[in-house]
Design a protein that fits this description.
Layout lengths: L1 H12 L1 H12 L8 E6 L2 E6 L2 E2 L1 H10 L7 E6 L5 E5 H17 L7 E5 L5 H12 L2 E4 L6 H11 L3 E5 L1 E4 L2 E4 L1 H7 L8 E5 L13 E3 H5 L11 E2 L3 E7 L7 E6 L1 H15 L6 E4 L6 H13 L3 E5 L10 H9 L3 E4 L1 H8 L4 H4 L8 E5 L5 H11 L6 E4 L33 E4 L11 E6 L9 E2 L3 H8 L7 E9 L5 E6 L3 E4 L2 E4 H9 L4 E11 L3 E10 L6 H15 L8 E4 L13 H10 L12 H9 L5
Parallel strand pairs: 4-17, 6-7, 6-8, 8-11, 11-12, 16-17, 16-18, 18-19, 19-20, 29-30
Antiparallel strand pairs: 1-2, 3-13, 4-5, 9-10, 14-15, 15-23, 21-22, 22-24, 24-25, 26-27, 28-29
The chain binds adenosine-5'-monophosphate-propyl ester (PRX).
């Protein structure tokens, strides 16, 4: 604790000196900065004038050391195939692929969409882009063609990197057909590079589609990392906000790399001989920062598993941990809850004694899940680190440092050095101990989002206007007498389904595109496993509708428009939606209805009270 406090105080008292020291120690720079931070809210520039390269830091600098033949990526495919890519071999594959991209004319500042299964070629594609300064945007393989199209268009991407498909629950999940569908309306795209993972029949459009293995025939192993400006964009990752349109969160080079490398070591207590596994999908920020860039920059062995946690049976994860003697395991509360339900005999039949540290991310971890994780998986030996952060923060912000900060189940505990969180009321005033309020971050930190791609106004408005100069997280929180933070969930119309962020407006926009739907209101409903489930209130256009069939249709419709993970749990048909006099849908009431099946609180602004009474008395009609 003394050590943590000392680090924290140093960062608080002289942030520039602190971050300069961390950056010097953790990162290779081709050229040093002239200024640590240039902060004109909401615009931050970290390590001004410095030059570096993320791929160089993740690969080249390690192969000159004892890590040359250390496993960088340890891959297990769902069918059981394995690959052990050493730093040397990963470097070779990344350089070859980068040389292919370069020879096809791609260069720093161009944009590439990466839409792949969880196979090593996904980080290889990301690192090859980073090597050349091509801005990548990874689109989670679970997103539909429609969602993919919107991202390609918003980014103005000229290149798509994909695969024929991947494996999930014993079946092939095809990806290329979704790309084909998306590209009917994406004229900016010149090339589609397709990696052959499954070998199933794939239609290739001549003049546009290229096989990865064909291109590799002409690859070279001479493609040096480009010396990029510290603020050069590294990636754009789309995430849900409060409108129907996802926002492209932009992360840049030097500050991002510095912060995630440092937190990788602080939070995971990383040792040279560790085997580290984060079970997230690389399509989300957790995978970017703590499967790919953080672990590789820190020189760790990072495990990637391609498929579902229940294939072929519910002990797949425990099998993987036993097989590779995994030491550090990082997963989500939603996965833990799903596994609890299957019973202790699955983990109990495996030797999990290699585990030393357990992590959690994505949503508050409920006491029952924490207790099970601690007892059944960690055998009461392993500290649990509950890490709070967001796509926008780039890296872990609030988390115990194992060994230093004592845990309290359900609390992220204390902030990382250099992170100054606070809890304020609507007017921006600090609330006292044990009071609920909005979580804000008072000072800039190196891995903070720099903007929303193509929409700097929205960036400013969403994050930086509530409390001038401070970052507004969108989460509610409370701080206890020990200074520990307790995250209470979102204060906006963003749902958290299985640790995935989804906006109510996004689902509503999808629903109203359906020819039968007049109006829709969507709220998150508490759910035992997924944390929240998508619950939709729908009014229909005139017609003779078969509610049961239409309910199914609408569920599939949303899955088609956004992706299978967004498929609504419930569709409730209603004659009218509760609205204020100004016509705003009162989602608060709908939330109460789905949570308690009653309505309490202030309803004086409601237009038609009978609507609420009716909705409240109605159970799931679907
Ligand atoms: O509400 C918080 C919740 O997830 C949101 C961020 O979602 P996303 O950008 O998709 O990133 C998830 C992975 C970093 C936050 O605003 N959240 C994330 N981690 C925690 C959490 N809530 C409570 N405890 C956590 N450890």
């Amino acid at each position: 604790m003394e050590g943590y406090l000392d680090l924290y105080r140093r960062a608080e008292n002289d942030p520039d000196a602190f971050w300069a020291e961390v950056a010097e120690r953790e990162i290779h720079w081709f050229e040093k900065w002239s200024q640590v931070l240039d902060w004109k809210p909401p615009t931050a520039r970290w390590f001004v004038g410095a030059r570096t390269n993320v791929a160089y830091n993740c690969l080249d600098r390690h192969i000159a050391t004892h890590r040359k033949n250390k496993v960088a990526i340890l891959f297990e495919g769902e069918p059981g195939d394995q690959r052990f890519l050493t730093y040397q071999e990963l470097h070779r594959l990344v350089v070859r692929f980068a040389s292919v991209l370069k020879s096809r004319g791609y260069k720093a500042g161009d944009r590439a969409i990466v839409y792949m299964p969880m196979i090593p070629e996904l980080p290889i594609a990301m690192l090859a882009c980073a090597r050349l300064g091509i801005i990548h945007s990874v689109v989670f393989g679970g997103f539909s063609a429609e969602a993919l199209k919107a991202r390609i268009q918003d980014l103005g991407a000229t290149l798509v990197i994909t695969a024929d498909g991947g494996y999930r629950r014993g079946k092939e999940v095809k990806l290329k057909p979704a790309v084909d569908e998306a590209l009917t309306e994406c004229p900016s795209v010149r090339d589609v590079i397709v990696y052959k993972r499954t070998g199933s029949e794939t239609i290739m459009q001549s003049g546009r589609d290229l096989w990865w293995h064909d291109l590799d025939q002409h690859a070279t192993e001479d493609c040096p990392a480009v010396e990029l400006d510290s603020e050069h964009p590294l990636y754009v990752l789309y995430t849900s906000g409060t409108t129907g349109k996802p926002k492209g969160i932009l992360h840049t080079t030097g500050g991002y790399l510095t912060y995630i490398t440092a937190t990788m070591k602080w939070v995971f207590d990383l040792r040279e001989e560790d085997t580290y596994w984060c079970s997230a999908d690389i399509g989300w920020v957790t995978g970017h920062s703590y499967i790919v860039y953080g672990p590789l920059s820190a020189g760790a062995t990072t495990v990637m598993y391609e498929g579902a946690l229940d294939f072929p049976a519910f002990d797949r994860w425990w099998r993987v941990i036993e097989k590779y003697r995994i030491n550090i395991f990082y997963t989500s509360p939603t996965a833990i809850r799903a596994l609890i339900r299957q019973g202790d005999h699955w983990p109990d039949s495996h030797d999990l004694s290699s585990l030393r540290l357990l992590g959690s991310v994505g949503e508050p971890i409920n006491p029952a899940a924490w207790e099970w994780y601690h007892r059944v998986i960690g055998k009461e030996r392993c500290p649990i680190i509950d890490t709070w952060w967001q796509t926008e923060t780039g890296g872990i912000m609030i988390s115990p440092m194992p060994g230093a900060v004592a845990a309290k189940p359900g609390s992220g505990t204390l902030p990382m050095p250099g992170v100054i969180p606070d809890i304020v009321d609507l007017n921006g005033y600090e609330v006292g101990t044990d009071r609920e309020g909005y979580l804000i971050i008072r000072r800039p930190w190196p891995s903070m989002a720099r903007t929303i791609w193509g929409d700097p106004e929205r960036f400013k408005e969403q994050y930086w206007t509530r409390v001038p100069g401070a970052y507004f997280t969108g989460d509610a929180a409370r701080r206890d007498a020990d200074g520990y933070f307790w995250i209470l969930g979102r204060v906006d119309d963003v749902m958290n389904v299985s640790g995935h962020r989804l906006s109510t407006m996004e689902v509503e926009s999808a629903l109203v595109k359906h020819p039968a739907v007049a109006e829709a209101a969507v709220v998150g409903k508490p759910h035992e496993i997924t944390g929240q489930a998508v619950c939709c209130f729908v009014t229909l256009k005139k017609g003779d509708w078969d509610h049961e069939k239409l309910g199914q249709d609408l569920r599939n419709w949303v899955a088609h428009e956004i992706g299978a993970f967004a498929r609504p749990n419930e569709i409730r048909f209603t004659d009218a939606l509760p609205k204020t006099r100004s016509g705003k849908i009162m989602r608060r009431l709908l939330r109460e209805i789905v949570t308690n099946n009653t309505v309490a609180g202030d309803v004086t602004t409601l237009e038609d009270m009978s609507v609420v009474t009716k909705l409240a008395s109605q159970h799931d009609e679907d």
